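ARCHIVE CARD
Drawer: 12
Card no.: 0347
Subject: one protein chain, sequence and derived structure
Cross-reference: see card 0346
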Amino acid sequence: MSEFETSKCWEQFADSPSVLAYLDAHFKGADDLLPALLEQVDESDFSLRDWMEALLVLNQWLEERGLNLPTNDNIGYVSCAVASAGAGANLAHLPSLVDDLLKQYGCERAVKK
């Protein structure tokens, strides 16, 4: 994906400095991650904004515990939250689903920094 396509994709987050900072930290220079994220978003009933907010929830949880998780596994974790929503996905709030999963199960793939 070209630099132009990437910047066009992120324009919708101009009003969210926290999302832009997350994108810069986790997706800049990782050419394979953005298509992987967008594919997961396209296959779900949730918007890219929902996904980014859910990734922020996960990232905050990891930071608070001094844990690290590769970005592709972050995407995978949110994807599991999407799957857990099932047919009622359009009634759910994805960041809340991620928060609920973290509270209930944690994240066993995360490692100490």
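Annotation on reverse: The mean pLDDT is 87. The helical segments are 3-10, 17-27, 33-43, 48-64, 71-85, 94-105.
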